[in-house]
Amino acid sequence: MSHLQERKEKNCLNCGETVMGRFCHKCGQENVEVKESFGHLIMHFFQDLTHFDGKLWKTLKLLLFKPAKLTQLYMDGQRANYIHPIRMYLFISTVFFLFIFSGEQVNKPEIVKPIPAIALPNPVLPNPILPNSLVSKKIDLKKIDPKQEEPKKVNPKKENSLHLQIGGDSISYKTIGAYDSLQSKLPTAKKNNWFESALIRKSIGLNDKFKNDKFKFGTALVEQFEHYFSRMLYISLPMFALFLWILNRRNKNHYFVDHLIFSIHIYCAFFIILFALKLFSLSTEFIFKRPPFGAAAIITSILMFYYVYKALLNHFNQSRLKTVLKFVILNILTALLMAGLMFIFILLSLFNL
Prior knowledge:
- This protein is 61% helix and 0% strand.
- By secondary structure, the chain is mainly α.
- Among the domains are: 100-104 and 213-351, no CATH class; 165-209.
- Helix 9 (256-288) runs antiparallel to helix 10.
- It is extended and about 90 Å long.
- Residues 105-113, 117-163 and 166-171 have low confidence and may be disordered.
């Protein structure tokens, strides 16, 4: 409740309903004077910030240190003291992606090129032994016209290695027109199908766009895939919940929405753990001037697997043997799902370059 003066009028400024007390019974708005001082504005800001922080830390404490406890409280109806799952997921995932993908740029290793030799004029000095005629003839033999130099032979294998071969024998074609011309002369049985044809066409176009530079192509592909990575996780979330529903379909106490809330909490915990790993990596690299050891990534992976197992054990209250079996099946299904989504979104990134 704010410290502003209550209005003498009893009509709600938000919905027009007659207000019986300080708050409107229909929309909940406080019936106070609309004019407020700068001090009231600052006080209101800090009250909202403190209220949000109280919910945030209380939610994160349960989420990280008591797996599945937050889901159980939400299912039991205790929701006022904690952040709503959808709001929490949007907030944490947005901060995660902004932090992970901000400021990261792949730097191409610089190649130190040798300084070209400067051709300085070489004056002919008179030879005290040889006659001047012989000296002049000798110099004429050494004169080379740069325009008449023999062209360097290019190794075709080395030249082809610069090309981006995505599918088929796209190296053989320098233009899409040449590829279409050859395909039109082939019998139907020997022609490429639509998928192979699309890959070869795209490969020819990328060779022309990136001037056969594999590094520029790889950097552009990674940047394009980063835009799709968040969408890949958004799509995998309901699929993860679907896997949970299939594995526990005999349990009538849990509906699909319950599995979805459980999955949201799992994903939020993963985002926070990966966020902490990224912070540790940056701080270690800043202090010791070297990237952290691989042990940190291994420990993080083990921690994430254990978190899922513990959450399944606490949420469904089944035996350890059943939990381990469902845990293994769930991870296999999730790995296949992520591999398929990654393949699809890499193709989308490729065709959107």
